[in-house]
Structures are given as structure tokens and as C-alpha cells.
Amino acid sequence: MAKTVLVTGGCGFIGANFVRLLLETRQDWQIVNLDKLTYAGNLLNLEDVSKNLTYRFVRGDICDQALLDDLFQEEQIDTVVHFAAESHVDRSITGPAEFIRTNITGTFTLLEAAKKSWLDNGLHSDQCRFLHVSTDEVYGSLGETGYFTEHTPYDPRSPYSASKASSDHLVRAYFHTYGLPILITNCSNNYGPYQFPEKLIPLMLNNGRQGKDLPVYGDGGNVRDWLYVQDHCEAIVRVVEQGRLGESYNIGGHNEKNNLQVVELLCDMLDEQLGLLPSGKERRSLITFVKDRLGHDRRYAIDAEKIDQELGWTPKYTFEQGMKKTVTWYLDNQAWMESVIDGSYQKYYAKMYGD
Ligand code: NAD
Ligand code: DAU
After folding, report:
1. Which domain holds residue 189?
2. Is there a contact between 224 and 188 (Cβ–Cβ < 8 Å)?
3. Per the domain annotation, does 157 fall within a domain?
4. What is the average pLDDT score of the chain?
5. How far does residue 187's CA lie from ligand 1's centre (Å)?
6. Number of compact structural domains in the chain
7. First vs last Cα of the chain: how many Å apart?
8. Residue 7 CA: which ligand is closest?
9. Which of 141, 85, 120, 266 is nearest to 191 (CA)?
């Protein structure tokens, strides 16, 4: 069914991959991408598709109620896919305030706009959807065994995960209190094209490419469940179209790896594609164990049975396939990486917006 979808945070990593997927596979959907263009938002991520007639970009803040109200009315938004957030755990440790503002107040403001536009105008819940994109980090940290299910009690432990947990609760409250037609997805670690090089995989790729140190936190034994970003985006489309209202769906890659394993695999792939370092050494020799992240969650692992059983979604990419595509993308798009590292990606649009 044709939709008019407001994608928030569409210039970020997952949002940009999601917009691209919609443009390819849902050509009868109108897409409005609302993004504040923080350091993590990059217009270059969608430059080649920005002239598409079903796509519109709006620069703006999800905390701006008047802007949201106008946008809902002007565009007759019937679907929200809400990615916009401060997303990096390390930044939430050194500067939590922006996480509270965007992730909690911003989500609240967006919920209010949807409620006003849909419920106050008597729209039936069949006609609209609010999908909140969240994280497995709301469940806390696992020991060596066990998995997060949708029934695992929330136990967030960083300012980032606490802000996401708070927004999840607000979204659920709008379902129970007002009947807003919401859905929540809680996903594990994504990787793939357009990820900002502050996150483990693109950071290591960029350093490894340049022969710089590869800083592994603590003992490198922390485990994440890695999922190729396209798989996550396809799961979100599935939940928007077929998910049961008011429900949460866990999304994961069935792919637990500790950080050292991930970095070693990357080193080997880079050695294969670029040859050994000028010194003749393998890139594994660049691995350096550094001071651990404060409150570093030890292990995340997703039980993704529910989305498989109810909606028939499972990931398509194995870790090796996804990593090969990722390494190739970053090596083929070194100009993108350079512009992010030297900040010129922001200069590119600063003139347009008078920043
Ligand atoms: P990202 O940091 O790459 O992108 C975030 C985007 O939101 C940027 O384009 C930024 O400009 C925009 N933004 C930030 N504050 C805004 C505001 N106040 N108003 C409007 N736009 C704003 O993030 P990502 O990794 O793509 O993550 C997207 C979403 O998915 C987040 O909600 C995150 O919590 C969730 N998530 C991420 C992962 C992951 O592994 N990256 C896993 C599970 C869930
Ligand atoms: O689990 C989902 C979450 O995954 C998302 O909600 C977050 O938005 C996303 O950033 C990601 O959080 P992590 O903290 O797991 O991702 P990050 O890439 O920052 O770190 C992955 C692991 O690698 C983590 O155990 C910390 C470690 N690490 C990270 C960096 C940046 C290092 O060892 N060295 C590094 O330099």
C-alpha cells in the first residue's frame, strides 16, 4: 500500500541505507527525510538519490514541535520511521545532555505530533504507523550465556542506552494511553556502508587502511551480535508493513563475535586487498589494547525468534559476506571517508544553510 513516510535521521548511517532501500523497493511511497545534520548526519550519504521525485529532504530538529506539526499537515504523513538519535555510547559517557534532549525529548515531541495529526483527526489505526527504531542495549549486559528476548526486563547501563530505554517506554505509553499505532524494533550492532568512523568497524577499517594503531578496549573479549545494515533495513520494512500494533520485535544477526575476532578478520581482509604493511608486517600487528570504556557492557546476544516466526524475517547475509561487501565499499569510497575525517562533508552543506 502506498505511504507517505517521515524518516527521521535519514542522513545518518542506518537512515541513509533505509531511504535507499525504500527508493529501490517501494517506489510508490513518498519519503520525507527530516534530519538536523548533526556531526553524524551527512548529505553526501544520499546525494546521488536526492533528486528522486518521491524524495524530499527537510533540515530540522525533532525537538521542534511547530516544524513537526507543519510537516505532518503539509505532507499528510501516515507513517513514521524514527531513526534520529544520538547513537554513540562513548559520546554519551563524555556528554550525555544531547542524548537526553534528542533521544527522549525529541521522541516525545514526535509522538505528540503524530498523536495530534492522526488521533485528533480521527484517523483509524489501520491508516498510520509509528515505528521507533531502538537498540538491544536497553536490555543491559549478558554473561557468557543467554539471549535477549522481547520479555527481558529493561536494564540500561549507559546514558545512551538509558535514553533509548526511556524513549521506548514513552512510545509504548502512547500506545496504551492514547492508542497511537506504534511498533518498536530493538536491534543489535549494525555494520555496512556510510557508518561514521567513530564506531568499531569503520574506525578500524580506516586506521588499518592507513597503517595506524587499532585501539581495542579492555581485553577485546566484549561480544556483540553483528548484523549487516541492509538486513536491518529489510526487517524494519517488514515490521512497518506486517508488525502487530503495540509490539516490540528483536532484530539480530545470529552472529556473536568478540571485538578481537572482528578486528582480526578486518586486518586479514585488508591485508588481502591492500597487501601487507610497508614494514612487511600483517595488520594484526597494529592491534593495541587500550583503557576500557566506562561501564562497558560485556555481551549482547539477540533471540530473533519472534520476528522469524511472526513475520518470516531472517538475515540474508553471513558475517563474512557482509564484511566483504563492507570492506570493498569503504575501499571504493575513500573520498567519502576522507571528507568525513577532514570535516569537508559539513562544509559542503554549510553554505546552503548559512552555518
Ligand atoms: P547515526 O548517528 O549514524 O545517525 C543519526 C542521525 O540522526 C544523523 O543523521 C543525525 O543528524 C540525526 N539527528 C540527530 N539528532 C537529531 C535531531 N535532534 N533532530 C533530527 N535529526 C537528528 O545513527 P545510526 O547508527 O544510523 O542509528 C540510527 C538509529 O538506530 C538510532 O536511533 C539508534 O539508536 C538505532 N540503532 C542503531 C544501531 C547501530 O548499530 N548503529 C543498532 C540498533 C539501533
Ligand atoms: O547494540 C546496538 C548498538 O550498537 C547501537 O544501539 C549503538 O547505536 C551502536 O553505536 C552500537 O553500540 P556499541 O557501543 O556496541 O558500538 P561501538 O561500535 O561503539 O563499539 C562496538 C564494540 O567495540 C564495543 O564493545 C566497544 C568496542 N570498541 C569500540 C571502539 C569505537 C573498541 O574496542 N574500540 C573502539 O575504538
Report:
1. 4-195+226-256+300-319
2. yes
3. yes
4. 97
5. 13
6. 1
7. 39
8. 1
9. 266
Place of cell 557508518: 195
pLDDT of residue 352: 77
Give the pLDDT of residue 181: 98
For residues 122-135, average pLDDT: 93
CB 217 within 8 A of CB 292: yes
Is 198 part of the annotated catalytic residue set? no
Decide if pLDDT at 319 tops 80. yes
* Position 229 confidence tier, pLDDT thresholds 50, 70, 90: very high
Question: Average pLDDT, stretch 309-329?
Answer: 98
Whether the CB of 20 sits within 6 Å of ligand 2? no
Q: Does 92 sit in the ligand 2 pocket, CB within 6 Å?
A: no
DSSP helix/strand/coil, 250: strand
> Pick the catalytic residue: 55, 139, 147, 160?
160
pLDDT at 351: 72
Q: Are strands 182-187 and 129-135 parallel, antiparallel or unpaired?
A: parallel
39 in a structural domain? yes
CB of 155 within 8 A of CB of 140?
yes
Catalytic residue among 75, 86, 137, 225: 137
Q: What percent of the chain has pLDDT over 90?
A: 94
- Residue 160 designated active-site: yes
CATH number at residue 191: 3.40.50.720
Please report whether residue 336 resides in a domain: no
288 within a domain of the structure (yes/no): no
Name all residues whose Cβ lies below 6 A of ligand 1. Answer: 8-9, 11-15, 35-38, 40-41, 61-63, 83-85, 87, 102, 106, 133, 135, 164, 187, 189-190, 196
Ligand 2 atom closest to the Cα of residue 222 is 25
| Cα 276 to ligand 1 centroid, rounded to whole Å | 35
Whether 163 lines ligand 2, by a CB cut-off of 6 Å, is no
Give catalytic status of residue 137 as yes or no: yes
Q: What would the pLDDT profile of 142-170 be if each residue is shown by its tens digit? A: 999 999 999 999 999 999 999 999 999 99
